[in-house]
């Protein structure tokens, strides 16, 4: 396959960026999208050009490092992390626009790589439980209803990629925050700090440069882990409950 790629190039967050057109040939349908970018980068390096910066790590859909907009869709045409997207999803002769995540909360570091430390700060605010770990507890020492454990597991599959933010017209981080609040709030171990956790995490989300959620649903539509809009309902339920209970976050 031969493709024309219009790729966002930006030297750093202070410089203006622009789309630059590249042509790639001999692309195998079995290559991943990132491998296709690797091939382009090898050519750029051999011709003493600056390679295109993009984030990646596991390349197995589990770390959440990767992510670009392809023709305006976060992670591209399949509902998967872009490292799991293969070139067989495209046709010979396609022209693709490749851009970084679009959000004020994710400033561009370089080219297609963005700074997602805002997510780390939301987790640091309260996305954990405070408990002495001790030795490993006996299996089934803390019974958990099957429905709760399944829902908690589903929420915990969020890989923190940021596609939800990039897809949202408001640039909202609500689906990510909701997934992190839900996976702890559904488990018995998460109950003691349930109210203060949701208040602190939502406050940190609001302090970052993200927009508000207006239930559009683009986030869930592109989420590679299929985190549902119901997770946001659960967050709102917990948030209202904490506010009604008059919970006060402690540092
Ligand atoms: S909710 Fe989905 S799209 Fe958003 S960060 Fe988690 S895995 Fe990525
Ligand atoms: S590189 Fe780890 S999820 Fe894509």
UniProtKB/TrEMBL annotation:
A Pfam family recorded for this sequence: Fer4_8
Xref: PROSITE patterns: 2FE2S_FER_1, 4FE4S_FER_1, 4FE4S_FER_2
Keyword Nucleus carried by entry: no
Names of required cofactors: [3Fe-4S] cluster; [2Fe-2S] cluster
Name under which the protein is recorded: Succinate dehydrogenase/fumarate reductase iron-sulfur subunit
One of the protein's GO biological processes: aerobic respiration
InterPro entries, A to Z: 2Fe-2S_ferredoxin-like_sf (IPR036010), 2Fe2S_fd_BS (IPR006058), 4Fe4S_Fe-S-bd (IPR017896), 4Fe4S_Fe_S_CS (IPR017900), Beta-grasp_dom_sf (IPR012675), Helical_ferredxn (IPR009051), SDH/FRD_Iron-Sulfur (IPR050573), Succ_DH/fum_Rdtase_N (IPR025192)
Family per similarity comment: Belongs to the succinate dehydrogenase/fumarate reductase iron-sulfur protein family.
Keywords (A to Z) from UniProt: Iron, Iron-sulfur, Metal-binding
NCBIfam families: PRK07570.1
GO molecular function, one term: electron transfer activity
Residues of the signal peptide: none
Organism lineage string: Bacteria, Bacillati, Actinomycetota, Actinomycetes, Geodermatophilales
Sequence ranges assigned to domain 4Fe-4S ferredoxin-type in this UniProt record: 149-179
